[in-house]
Amino acid sequence: MTKEAVFLATAAVETLRNLRRAAPLTHCITNYVTANDCANVLLAFGASPIMADAPEEVEEIVALSTGLVVNLGTLNRSTVDATFAAARRANELGIPAVLDPVGVGASRLRTETARRLLDEIRFAAIRGNVSEIAALAFGTGSVRGVDAAVSDAVAESNRRAVAERLREFAAAFRTTVVASGALDLVVDAERFATVRNGSAWAARITGAGCMSTAVLGACVAANRERVWEAAVAATAAFGVCGEIAERRTVERGGGTATFRTELIDAASTAEPERLAELLRVEAEVFGGV
Amino acid sequence: MTKEAVFLATAAVETLRNLRRAAPLTHCITNYVTANDCANVLLAFGASPIMADAPEEVEEIVALSTGLVVNLGTLNRSTVDATFAAARRANELGIPAVLDPVGVGASRLRTETARRLLDEIRFAAIRGNVSEIAALAFGTGSVRGVDAAVSDAVAESNRRAVAERLREFAAAFRTTVVASGALDLVVDAERFATVRNGSAWAARITGAGCMSTAVLGACVAANRERVWEAAVAATAAFGVCGEIAERRTVERGGGTATFRTELIDAASTAEPERLAELLRVEAEVFGGV
Amino acid sequence: MTKEAVFLATAAVETLRNLRRAAPLTHCITNYVTANDCANVLLAFGASPIMADAPEEVEEIVALSTGLVVNLGTLNRSTVDATFAAARRANELGIPAVLDPVGVGASRLRTETARRLLDEIRFAAIRGNVSEIAALAFGTGSVRGVDAAVSDAVAESNRRAVAERLREFAAAFRTTVVASGALDLVVDAERFATVRNGSAWAARITGAGCMSTAVLGACVAANRERVWEAAVAATAAFGVCGEIAERRTVERGGGTATFRTELIDAASTAEPERLAELLRVEAEVFGGV
Fold this sequence. Notes:
By secondary structure, chain A is of the alpha/beta class. Chain A has helices spanning 3-22, 35-45, 58-64, 77-93, 108-120, 130-138, 144-152, 159-172, 208-222, 227-252, 256-269, 272-277; strands spanning 25-29, 48-51, 67-71, 97-100, 125-129, 176-180, 184-187, 191-195, 281-285. Chain A has a single domain (3-285), classed as 3-Layer(aba) Sandwich (UDP-N-acetylmuramoyl-L-alanine:D-glutamate ligase), CATH 3.40.1190.20. Chain A has twelve helices and nine strands. Chain A has a nine-stranded mixed β-sheet with strand order 2-1-3-4-5-6-7-8-9, sandwiched between helices. In chain A, helix 9 packs across helix 10. Chain A starts with a helix and ends with a strand.
């Protein structure tokens, strides 16, 4: 391992250990399709999930919590209200909030909700697939130039160019951006990591993205002074769990439901040190502004 | 195999291959109990699910989609509005819509919603258990005569009589009806298939019916010119997955949760050709009108 | 086995057999996070679940049902209305209702809803973790004295003292209380059982409490003349399933998702006689009032 890789692995172990030690109460306002998976993966990594989305109670719930995760997967008028109420309160109290803008760009409701959230709320981190992040960060019309590069996929050939674009967005909103694809980028105003962990099987189940965001939220909650490192660790550790799950699924001749089981099993059984050994992460510092 | 059975098997292979090739975006407005299972089984068969039920966005979401599945499992005022909005738009755009009238007959809300849907919307296919289909097609009061035959069960002894009754309903609403029971009937105005595939274990988990309807919706979306053949293929292929899952569950000494895992595993691993080999389907053309 | 243990085991076998024989339609108004697990565990134990929470239909649905389970896990304005409507109708019709006051104490909405439910509705049984039960039964402010004993945990050292406190609550509301913790107490006005079955793994998945309450609701529905015995049997049988699941999970080197699968598998495969053999339950009659 290079010196930098050793640093990232050490930071990941610390992130994941802090997560287990703090067992942060993580308030999730999330879609009903994958809420169960998100709760289970949070428990598997050592966090304590609480799902609550009634506008009448979310300010109290978030105030009891250490972190907030908002996921727009099956938003409706009531949960949009709840999301704003909880996120505003989180900001007031200094509780880190994480956003997964699921399907942004697919409907005005999603796009406008995500934009308004960006305008009003400070998110410690934002995670989505690269198309969602592009739609959120640049809109559809305004970025046709970079669209091919950004929205097709993040690959070895364009990762630096994509990261540069995401850097602007991260800097403008003082956040850390995680854009997932064939490889994942974790970008803030100063540096970016390329995470090469993960399994192609993750795209064959519902909820892999939602789960990854939930884990991100919990990691940030337990490591709020080092958000970028926490985001790298969360993204890579979840990716490693996917790799372990893929290997076991193939060994057993299983299919996608077995993969889902193995994914959460891996999260609940692998020690931070073991996950860190399997990281395939590279970090780079951006050049001068 | 008879010539007819060969034809059905060949059509099933083509249906399932088209499904994989098209990977149709399938918009589901469905209940929160089994939404995760529906999304996962759609992915397993090669479709691309999107769950969205906010009235404000469903017209946009369905317009992006290739097929629409509406399931009344946990309907409420908001999702009823969303269902009508999405289904009307689907009809306008020629996007095939499929209905699962879960629990029709159990409450006025369900019965009236299902009836109004029938009045206003053209569904490419409608799938439910035989009691639901009877309640929807004939109402309770008006069909006391056929009630015993229809609502008790579809069995070898009465399948032709039940199919004849369902034919009238299918013809009146220009739809294909799938009525599930000890055996499944797939009926349109001209012919019906008797599907003998399936596992009794399916009734011991929640969501088997919902999943079968979701697969039906995706198969119809990817094969919209041949809805009846697509419905036969979807119903039989899902039934075969149940048989594979039952065998594996029994071999492993597992219970109903293992069966659920094996069911989705089978959907995600069995090749169309393999599923088609195991079909037990018989088709008959109705006599003259 | 002592004479008393034999009695409890015999009663448990009868409770579970009645459950299978009656297959009670169990109406659940429950949270979307674990609704799927609740439906599957009800089916596994032989009950027939129906999830429905639209205010417009719940009175009709509960009237068709044999039991009602209300769980405040992800309550919102609409489901609160539905809960009251269903529970009032259940009371009118003599259908036993069971309450799981998830998160009571965490928000005014939850606390006030649970208190209003207690005021207006007669529940055959109420189940929650010991903190929830303490918050519901005694409030936070009024019970500082007993708070340490009650809210920290129920353990061997304080179980009698806790049971005495819960007895007052059970008597005042003419209900049976199940308070879960390191060990579970099942308390009514006259006696209490200490249930030592269960697995520490249950706390590492979401939904174990919700599932236990669902099974309680179905057991009470099928054994309404002997609610306390039914509650002991449901609590202990679910705990035994956890023990079986833990053993199998460890044998297979699995994690928490495997545990969840094994838990429902155990519920669906273990015979009542087998579950009863593994009970670790002790009953005591309260001294005079």
